[in-house]
Design a protein that fits this description.
This protein is mainly β. Helix content is about 10%, strand content about 40%. The two termini are about 20 Å apart.
């Protein structure tokens, strides 16, 4: 797992609902924790683009519903700044379910994926359709 080259913009808190954009069977995910979050006392853990989070499946097939999975945030509504100075914003919050080695559980990722995710997790870029 590499460091990302973008700054700021942590738009997803614990309790946020994310759209699952792979074909693993999950549709809606709820963030229950952020892996590696270091914050101040009594602060809610937040996540941004390309951050690994722990999620519970709220809506999906019977096989995956109410189970806890690792996921990687691939899109966020909150605007964030790239190293080139360009600001990027997506229309929804979305994530991809991953395994222990951060390889996607699904075989197809629908919709655009941020470039920062592909820099950090190369294997997610291999199954993505569009990289922005």
């Amino acid at each position: 797992m590499k460091a990302i080259s973008s700054g700021g913009g942590r738009g997803i808190q614990t309790g946020s609902l994310l759209k699952c954009i792979d074909n693993s069977g999950a549709h809606v995910l709820k963030v229950i924790s952020v892996r590696g979050f270091k914050g101040i006392r009594k602060a809610r853990p937040t996540a941004g683009i390309a951050d690994p989070v722990m999620c519970r499946v709220k809506r999906g097939t019977e096989k995956v519903r109410n189970q806890v999975f690792k996921a990687v945030v691939v899109r966020q509504k909150k605007e964030y700044r790239r190293a080139s100075g360009m600001r990027v914003q997506f229309e929804d919050n979305a994530a991809v379910l991953v395994g222990d080695n951060f390889e996607p559980t699904g075989t197809l990722v629908k919709g655009p994926v941020a470039r920062e995710v592909v820099e950090r997790f190369k294997i997610i870029g291999k199954v993505a359709n569009v990289i922005v």
